[in-house]
Fold this sequence. Notes:
By secondary structure, the chain is an alpha/beta fold. The chain has one domain (43-221): L,D-transpeptidase catalytic domain-like. It is 20% helix and 27% strand. It has five helices and eleven strands, in the order ααββββββααββββαβ. β3 and β4 (104-109) form a beta hairpin. The radius of gyration is 29 Å and the shape is globular.
Amino acid sequence: MTVSLPSARSVAAFLALALSVGACTTVAAPPPQAAAPVAMVSPAEAERYAALTNEKFHVPEVALEDLRPRNLRQLVDYQTTHQPGTVVVDPRKRFLYLVQENGKALRYGVGVGKEGLEFQGTATVERKAQWPRWTPTTDMIKREPDRYAKWAGGMAGGDTNPLGARALYLFKNGKDTLYRIHGTNEPSTIGEAVSSGCIRMMNQDVIDLYNRIPAGSKVVVL
């Protein structure tokens, strides 16, 4: 029995077809990768940061894009030797904890001081103020006179005041440290190291903290 061999032309055609198919596979674009999921804020969480209408000055809602889930006020597990009612600030993690019973704490996202300007150690809340007056420190005026000198005499409390809706004044050994836990009208800075040493919170959060702790409360800044 005679087996016919393929002609040279048919072999060449087959190889060309194989090469063309291989080329298509090689240059084909990889399938698009799914975008990383965006963390969403629940309606209940967003409601905590709605506009406040019962304040002396307007407190606007915090925009959803500024409500990063990690910075939301929330109850968390927190093992510590500090007594319930103690405020603990962790500048590295950008969190403030209000210690609770049974290994829990209320955690708030905060903005902290730039490197070299931040406060460390233990202090006491000797004064609490609603819609506080703000006066830049002498050091702030020296560092940035164009920005702060015009306010050397102080700025009245209000919705444009950099201390926001509330301020807690930190004292150490009976002396004013000049550091504050206070609100801010720039919620996008929460979670960042941008302030002149103070600990800033969203206005809704600092009002919540203000209502929970009395004067004389212990504050520990790690």
